[in-house]
Amino acid sequence: MHPNALFRSEDRALFETLIDEIGFGMVFMTTPDGPRVAHTPLLSTGDGAVQFHIARGNALTRYLDGGTALVTINGPDAYVSPRWYAARGTVPTWDYVSLELEGRVRRMASEGLEGLLHALILRHEGRMGGEQWSVEETPPDMWRKLLGAIVGFELEVLAWRPTFKLSQNKSAAERAAIADGLEQHGSPALAQLIRTLGE
């Protein structure tokens, strides 16, 4: 989390939206083998927890249950050029959105894991439009084999640490110029966030 309080938020609905919209993150933990990370789809339960699954053979799998872990979700980010300011005698920076979730982890039963998979599939297939793929299209033996190759976990969030660094430390005119510059150089999502959240 960025140390500048200007870049923080207490808006839980915004955090939930970020998890839902991005739907993917990293799980970090210090293990006896050293620090490890797993990249995984994420699903918020809506009541202060996030669920995820990782491969049974992942370096984190045997350590997560009962441990404390950190989940990070990264939103849009981009380089901010001094060329966009009226006074160019400054330095570049980087605007970004990120959310850190720290908490206790518990392993899910196989029924919970299967429920998580169905929820993830339903959510992401629904966003694609058109004819959706269905789990029933996978042969049962293949589904059971794949289900046995992953492990589901739920992290109870004990600390929410967001960073919404959207040039809030700049004037309104500078923020508008930064948003225009980002939009022109391939970062429209971040530009929109600066316009709507960076005030």
TrEMBL record:
<dbReference type="InterPro" id="IPR007396">
    <property type="entry name" value="TR_PAI2-type"/>
</dbReference>
<dbReference type="InterPro" id="IPR012349">
    <property type="entry name" value="Split_barrel_FMN-bd"/>
</dbReference>
<protein>
    <submittedName>
        <fullName>FMN-binding negative transcriptional regulator</fullName>
    </submittedName>
</protein>
<dbReference type="Pfam" id="PF04299">
    <property type="entry name" value="FMN_bind_2"/>
</dbReference>
